Amino acid sequence: MENKFTEYNDENRVTYDNDEDTLYIWKAPCQGRLGSVVLYHDGKDHTMVSLDTDEVGTIVGIEINNVSKIIKKFNTQRN
Questions:
Q1: What is the reported pTM?
Q2: What SS3 class is residue 64?
Q3: Is residue 65 helix, strand or coil?
Q4: According to the 3-state scheme, what is the secondary structure of 13-61?
Q5: Longest dimension (CA), the chain
Q6: Edge-first strand listing for the sheet containing 14-17
Q7: Which residues have CB under 8 Å from 64's CB, separation 6+?
Q8: What pLDDT is attached to residue 1?
Q9: 46 near 65, Cβ under 8 Å?
Q10: 74 contacts: CB under 8 Å, gap ≥ 6
């Protein structure tokens, strides 16, 4: 499935790529060069959470790679 939302869009601020199991939450439009800050990374199962920021310090979005694995890993629900 091709993700047609590759830049900030007020009408669709959450995108999910099923093939890559990646969730992206758009927070604000980018103002200049884009960079990222890794908040969590596990090389064993290739899970990662990062913040995308621009050159003026705006948090542009949040990317979660292998989101299904992260949900299972951090499930705090008691059975």
A1: 0.78
A2: strand
A3: strand
A4: CEEEECCCCEEEEECCCCCCCEEEEEEEEECCCCEEEEEEEECCCCEEE
A5: 47
A6: 14-17, 22-26, 59-65, 47-54, 34-42
A7: 22, 23, 24, 48, 49, 70
A8: 36
A9: yes
A10: none
Q: Quick one: pLDDT at residue 12?
A: 75
Residue 40 makes CB contacts below 8 A (sequence gap 6+) with: 47, 48, 49
User: What is the rounded distance in angstroms from the CA atom of residue 47 to the CA atom of residue 65?
Assistant: 5
Q: Which helix (H) or strand (E) holds 63?
A: strand 59-65
Which tokens is 45 given? 């199962």
CB 58 within 8 A of CB 36: no
Residue 52 CB burial class (10 angstroms; 0-12, 13-18, ≥19):
buried
pLDDT in tens, 55-65: 999 999 999 99
In sequence order, which residues have a C-beta less than 8 Å from that of residue 51 and are 6 or more positions away? 36, 37, 39, 59, 61, 62, 63
